[in-house]
Amino acid sequence: MDYKSSLIQDGNPMENLEKQLICPICLELFTKPVVILPCQHNLCRKCANDIFQAANPYWTTRSGSVSMSGGRFRCPSCRHEVIMDRHGVYGLQRNLLVENIIDIYKQECSSRPLQKGSHPMCKEHEDEKINIYCLTCEVPTCSMCKVFGAHQACEVAPLQSVFQGQKTELSNCISMLVAGNDRMQTIITQLEDSSRVTKENSHQVKEELSQKFDTLYAILDEKKSELLQRITQEQEEKLSFIESLIQQYREQLDKSSKLVETAIQSLDEPGGATFLLSAKQLIQSIVEASKGCQLGKTEQGFENMDYFTLDLEHIADALRAIDFGIGHQ
Prior knowledge:
Helix content: 55-70%
Order of helices and strands: HHEEHEEHEEHEHHH
CATH class of the domain at 13-59 and 69-111: Alpha Beta
Number of helices: 8
Largest sheet: 3 strands, antiparallel
CATH topology of the domain at 13-59 and 69-111: Herpes Virus-1
Low-confidence stretches: 1-10
Radius of gyration: 55 Å
């Protein structure tokens, strides 16, 4: 609490000092003992205990039978959360400096004459101070109004007693409001925690779902590669067989072509003796070559690959039926 700077800025140091010494709960001068909160704001210990008890209804005073390890409440000035130990507000440090300033201020005020206009005056009796409270009309008034004026038949009470009662009522209302604000802040904190946990849980199940689908993708890719490899292997075996047949038939065709050429040349031989010397052997070679034409062949449908066809409709239906468990809302 920066008393010095506040006093310098104001033209009336005593009035501004009084503002600095007002409790934010009871709206009166701090009542000793004065406690200082961790946020450096001050409260009457009684006021601090009132809002502490309102915020922690199951925590009792030091003489009570029920005890807890501690409690918490929020500073009415800055909303900073104050966490208490098992001593409650009695564990807070007293602000002796503020208590000394209050004593000095009260001494100064008691030694100063009452300034004109510092106390409200009655409108009907301008020389009379307002010093009583009309309970019937619920307005402050003066003694002359009660004796001779408009409030002769009304019930009145000392101004100070009504003043203290309404101050206490307002202080209690503030305490209830502060406690209500604390409860709302607690609910907000719980909802924020719930929002955070919901996001974390959502992220976790998304990661798990992605991992499971990635596993399915990996299985499908592995099976796809395996089946394609089997098709490729079958293809290579069939092509190799066909290529070997082609090679055999080409070799046989080459031999036959050469025999045909030799036979034609023999037919052109004019001499009978010369022709007969080679004709018999040539005929045997042609006969043997004719027998060799009976080489291997491919069976009907050899090139067919339809037996590698898959029926995946039932698997596709199973994949389409994938869904969350019964507990999903």
